[in-house]
């Protein structure tokens, strides 16, 4: 649940690198580094000129809603997350050196330099203001949720495709980074500072969300396979109800946070609770429109029947 507004903790990070995704390689981690001193426009869907998943045709091909593109506007990784990943000392087939843990490793748009901005310090719904040379900029950002890592993470980090690998570790810990939603468009450049300005859900840090949803040993290995099947049949749960690692109260509370991104998070929570399908579990648009027309038609017929019954009752009374 949202808490009354209070003074947020002091939390800030410097923009150390910016990356755009070339259109020709939309399914890869390839990125073009934005030169220092060059500003990039950040709109409601993310960095302009960057062909990320939420801005390409793949979004509509998967049947996802236009209104939800903004949940994944800006992908973010932090130096503190990479430090924690290195300290985890994962037993990987290919040793992970500190030199490899550098900006762009996770295919992010924005790399933030901060010794403290980890998944356990950022919360869903956190709002950040942007400052340049001490002057607040127009751009305002909101944490919409963790990044759920795909199999490409294991290709790039450690070459270990098991529960001991980097992808599984990041899925449970939140070390893959997070997404910003854009509340107010503006521009961004290397050297800018993002500073926490508002926190509504202090209990819901990103590490906790990942641990509760993807912490089960079966779920963390199967969520991608199940999720791909769900895009086809619209029914297969990516995470089973019995794999939820929290209480019923925690499930209800997290599912009710509107700021939490739908894809890979809120959609799975709603599926567990038996609520109407959202994200990959929503009906195709044509089906929804047909259902809406059918419901409207039923309503008209029902109203007519009720009106006719009322008229007959009034006639008998006379």
Q: What does this entry look like structurally?
A:
Strands 1-6-5-9-8-7-11 form a 7-stranded mixed barrel. The protein is an alpha+beta fold and 318 residues long. The longest helix has 33 residues, at 285-317. The protein has helices at 57-61, 79-87, 152-156, 166-173, 206-214, 219-233, 248-255, 262-273, 285-317; strands spanning 12-20, 32-33, 40-43, 46-47, 74-78, 110-113, 127-132, 135-146, 178-184, 186-188, 193-198.
Cα-based radius of gyration, to the nearest Å: 23 Å
Number of strands: 11
Mean pLDDT rating: 88
Strand content: 15-25%
Name the structural class: alpha+beta
Order of helices and strands: EEEEHEHEEEHHEEEHHHHH
Q: Which stretches of 5+ consecutive residues score pLDDT under 50?
A: 290-306
Cα distance, first to last residue?
56 Å
Tell me roughly what share of residues is in helical segments: 25-40%
Number of helices: 9
**Main beta sheet: strand number and arrangement?**
7 strands, mixed, barrel
């Amino acid at each position: 649940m949202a808490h009354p507004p209070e003074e947020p903790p002091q939390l800030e990070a410097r923009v150390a690198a910016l990356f755009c995704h070339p259109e020709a390689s939309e399914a890869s981690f390839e990125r073009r580094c934005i030169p220092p001193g060059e500003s990039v426009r950040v709109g409601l869907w993310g960095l302009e000129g960057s062909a990320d998943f939420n801005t390409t045709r793949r979004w509509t091909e998967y049947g996802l809603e236009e209104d939800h593109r903004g949940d994944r506007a800006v992908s973010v990784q932090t130096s503190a997350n990479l430090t924690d990943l290195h300290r985890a000392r994962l037993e990987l087939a290919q040793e992970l050196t500190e030199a490899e843990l550098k900006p762009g490793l996770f295919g992010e748009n924005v790399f933030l330099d901060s010794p403290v901005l980890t998944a356990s310090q950022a919360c869903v719904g956190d709002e950040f203001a942007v400052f340049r040379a001490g002057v607040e900029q127009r751009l305002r950002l909101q944490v919409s949720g963790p990044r759920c890592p795909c199999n490409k993470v294991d290709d790039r980090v450690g070459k270990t495709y098991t529960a001991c690998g980097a992808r599984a570790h990041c899925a449970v810990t939140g070390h893959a980074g997070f997404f910003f939603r854009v509340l107010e468009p503006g521009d961004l450049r290397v050297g800018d500072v993002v500073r926490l300005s508002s926190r509504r859900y202090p209990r819901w840090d990103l590490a906790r969300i990942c641990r509760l949803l993807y912490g089960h040993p079966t779920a963390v290995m199967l969520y991608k396979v199940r999720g791909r099947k769900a895009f086809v049949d619209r029914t297969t749960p990516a995470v089973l109800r019995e794999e939820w690692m929290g209480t019923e109260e925690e499930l209800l509370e997290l599912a009710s946070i509107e700021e939490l991104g739908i894809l890979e998070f809120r959609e799975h929570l709603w599926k567990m609770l038996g609520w109407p399908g959202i994200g990959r579990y929503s009906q195709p648009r044509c089906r929804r429109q047909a259902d809406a027309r059918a419901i409207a038609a039923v309503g008209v017929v029902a109203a007519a029947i009720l009106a006719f019954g009322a008229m007959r009752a009034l006639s008998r009374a006379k």
